[in-house]
Amino acid sequence: MKSHANRVVLVTGAGSGIGQGIAEAFAQHGAAVGLLDFNGENAERIAATLRDQGLTAHAYQADVVDFNAVSSVCADIERTLGPIDIIVNNAGISPKRKGIPVETWKMDVEEWRRVIDVNLSGAFNTVRVVVPGMVKRRSGSIVNMSSVAGRAHLWMVAVHYSTTKAGLIGFTRHLAGELGPYGITVNALAPGRIDTPLMHMVPEEINQKALEQTPLGRYGLPEDVASAALFLTSAEAGFITGQVLDVAGGWFMT
User: What would the 3-class secondary structure string for 11-33 be?
Assistant: First the structure.
């Protein structure tokens, strides 16, 4: 039996990169997956490929910042696929200028607000919509996508990204404390340099510097992060909550 058979999963930011890898992995392990992405065409392309394999996947276009849009998507998922058992809050952005992060004192206020809204408030929105049902059923799992940038200073990202990823760690731990009595686990993943389009937004010498500092000597793949998400939402991880799991090849160790 597949590990996530008969479970319904919402993955945000599922139209490319890590989110795509996570959505594909859950579907391949038997889950019915709702793929939410700002780019609806990308999400539908991935969902269609999964359906061609006989898997269950539905795509939705929405901005996670829009609470009403998130509510509508989740309602449709629950009508179509069933109650949402797992949330993977993966949607995130990391704006740069010509591949270089902007210093804090030069950053546009609008850019700061947009990153805070997408990366942090977007996770709140899905939780606010879905968790009441999880509480009623006394079961569920949430995985929030943080980053090693939320645990240490990294030179290739800007302050808004680091702040939101640190915020997601606090969000995760607080939720874990609130939701533990209802049998709901909440954990975070902290990827390092994962080979996705987002990684290639910076000059290659920056990625090479990160690679040289990674003990395993390679970039991560979306599949590496997906495997960790599968584990944290599996029965085997049922007694794990409030944790941050680095998926970084040893790049950041405590």
Answer: EECCCCHHHHHHHHHHHHCCCEE
The DSSP secondary-structure symbol of 3 reads: T
Phi, psi of 190 (to 5 degrees): -125, 85
Residue 13 scores a pLDDT above 80: yes
Q: What is the tens place of the pLDDT at every residue in 205-229?
A: 888 888 888 899 999 999 999 999 9
User: Where does 20-130 show beta strands of DSSP type E?
Assistant: 32-37, 57-61, 86-89
Residue 202 has pLDDT above 80, yes or no: no
Residue 3 belongs to a domain: no
Residues ≥6 apart with Cβ < 8 Å to 135: 179, 182, 184
Q: Is residue 194 part of a domain?
A: yes
Residue 96 lies in a domain: yes
Range of the domain at 118: 8-247
Sheet containing 32-37: order of strands: 57-61, 32-37, 8-12, 86-89, 140-145, 184-191, 244-247
Q: Please, is 235 exposed, middle or buried when counting C-beta atoms within 10 Å of its C-beta (0-12, 13-18, 19+)?
A: exposed
Catalytically active residues are: 161
118-156: pLDDT as tens digits: 999 999 999 999 999 999 999 999 999 999 999 888 877
- Tally the domains of the chain: 1
What count of other Cβ atoms lies within 10 Å of the Cβ of residue 28? Answer: 17
The closest of 101, 97, 146 to 119, measured between CA atoms, is: 146
Contact 194, 17 (CB under 8 A): yes
* Residue 116 is assigned to a structural domain of this protein: yes
CATH code at 202?
Answer: 3.40.50.720
